[in-house]
Fold:
Amino acid sequence: MTGTLVLAGTPIGDTADAPPRLAAELAGADVIAAEDTRRLRRLTQALGVTPTGRVVSYFEGNESARTPELVEELAGGARVLLVTDAGMPSVSDPGYRLVAAAVERDIKVTAVPGPSAVLTALALSGLPVDRFCFEGFLPRKGGERLSRLREVAGERRTLVYFEAPHRLDDTLAAMAEVFGAERRAAVCRELTKTYEEVKRGPLAELAAWAAEGVRGEITVVVEGAPEKGEQDLSAEELVRRVRLREEAGERRKEAIAAVAVEAGLPKREVFDAVVAAKQAGL
Structure:
């Protein structure tokens, strides 16, 4: 009989948020695969748990190499517990490869639900939560980051991102450029920790705030694009959006058509705005 892979959610800040089942799984697992074994030790000490199983590291650097080893443990009947530094494994953390490999071998995969920075930030943001999409971390390079943001410029669902504190100001500035300076957003910092902070406002305002320096673990929640016809865009804004798409490699005709769809306007109106700007030398 094959074993079971258990994905366990861990606290994103306050260890008192650990789900009740987590302690039992930590104590009884045959193998614990941890993103950081030192953090695991601190967590077990805080929970008053002494693991009896073997503890191995499982992080981005060794995930590919260690996955086959863990799958063989599972195939041999072991109960393998996977934990990451905070939140749910596989969600911008190690885990996907192991889950996919276990599923391929028809090995049971289950989970211990736990805290999630994505859902916590979404709930605290004050933005619509009925429909949302998680975009993870944006690329580090500026050009790639802008391209990724342009892909979702017309997305109407609320967007959730993770970001490093030293890149936050650049990311918010890029979002203001692509999504519009007035698009609402919330920066959630150090969730459930002592210095928890949720900063809400237009993207341009948040970018200016972040330029002064922000510390801690960051989750950014951004309002989705307005419904067609909701926005009353100026001719200048229409031209700006067309140019952004052209800079990304789109032909002008395609860029005009895409902006017209986003704005809920006839293509002719966007075309006329572009022609007028060109004639005015803008």
Summary: The longest strand covers residues 132-137.
